[in-house]
Amino acid sequence: MDDGARILIVDDDPDMLHLIGVRLSAAGYRISQADSGEAALVSFRQQRPQLVITDLRMGEMDGLSLFEHLQKEAPTMPVIILTAHGTIPDAVSATRRGVFSFLTKPFDGQELLRRTADAIRLSPALDPENDAAHWRKALITVNVRMEELLRQALRISEESRTTLLVGPAGSGKSTLAKAIHKAGRRAEHPFVTLSCTDFPATEQEQLLSLNNPDGVFAEAANGLLYLQDIGTLSPLAQSRLFQLLFAQMQAKDPLHRICTPNKRNLAPAAQVIASSPRPLDRAVAEGSFRSDLFYLLSGSTLLIPPLNERPEDIPILAKHFLTEVTPEKSLSLAPEALSALQEGRWPGNVRQLKNVLNQVAKLSLTPIIPEAIVRRVMRDFEEDCLTAFDDARRDFEREYLIRLLETTGGNVAHAARVAQRNRTEFYKLLARHGLDPGSFKQSFR
Fold this sequence. Notes:
The chain is α/β, with parallel strands linked by helices. The chain has three domains: 6-121, 3-Layer(aba) Sandwich (Rossmann fold); 131-303, Rossmann fold (3-Layer(aba) Sandwich), CATH 3.40.50.300; 306-445, Orthogonal Bundle (Helicase, Ruva Protein, domain 3), CATH 1.10.8.60. The protein has helices spanning 14-26, 37-47, 63-73, 88-96, 109-121, 144-159, 173-183, 201-207, 216-219, 235-250, 281-286, 291-298, 314-325, 335-343, 349-363, 371-408, 412-419, 423-432, and strands at 6-10, 30-34, 51-55, 79-83, 101-104, 163-166, 191-195, 224-228, 257-259, 266-268, 271-276, 301-303, 332-333, 368-369. The strands form four sheets. A five-stranded parallel sheet has the order 2-1-3-4-5, sandwiched between helices. The chain has a five-stranded parallel sheet with strand order 7-8-11-6-12. α15 runs antiparallel to α16 (371-408) and α16 (371-408) packs across α17. The longest helix is centred in the C-terminal third of the chain and has 38 residues, at 371-408. The chain starts with 5 loop residues before the first strand and ends in a 13-residue tail after the last helix.
């Protein structure tokens, strides 16, 4: 049993609430209670339980309706439904729709404890203050979507699954990858990052080769290999990566040794997590990213929401960053300053918020930071982001053209059709970025 796990009990019968609460509290669980489905949703969002136990027959929102609401917000949250004899068919139907289990009233106390323990084993603690949740301390959130994402991340770590992280720049993809590494049984082994944008095609291929003792698979032996911006891998590097991941997928034990097709070169396997700032569907459609590699990666995908879709996280992130920057003095934000942060657009997401607060802490002369300083720094960073956006757009355009020429082997007519541009316009794009299509004919294999 996971001592101290938080459980939400929902029933409109106060005697039943009391009875279940006493049994579970005596077993060491932390209990919160709600007497209606509506109250349960409020409590769920505030308390973040690991299990919900609800009666089936209640007032306006019954147990099934509550389950449907919970499933939308937290699909991996286990729910146990309590039912009377006459409603067993409803309970069986609910189980088929994803309810973890159901118990028939009157239920045996030991059976309640057994079902509860089974559910808790599949629903890890997410409270960062819980010792069992040390792995996610760097991921600060009260957002329901983020909490559900962390549940999925913990299961990925336990199963050593190959995973694709998708989220805009600054949203925390590398932080999440490190948390997955820390949570699983590979935590004592290396965490290795390969930024795919930092290396030309030939070096990418060498780094991903099992024949290379200095390659990233050898370096990440039995640990975790994080492939940052995987969409920029060359076609040959994508091919080699697919072969390696497919070989790992065939093994029963994720901590096995993988080999090249000739069976001679053995290397300890590594869990692979890849990231992309945008979904890879378009790259697959354009032919610049292998469809088989995409489907292998996207079988387990985590979508990280941008900061402007989780505004409730801004106050706790701001408090954390201010404490981190100035641990020797206590800084806080004036209410108007905090409102200014929550009104921001944050194109750079959590990373931008952290940078803004670092600068705000340096400029503030008082313990309570005024609105004027916050708005001034936000305006400065917004101007910087606008300038950086133009640079980023040029970089993206050049990278896209390079991948396109690599994929088509320097065939300008084919590349122009994929890019949906006429040949004259396409040649101008190549000239603007100093790219010679002839140099890509030899690299196409």
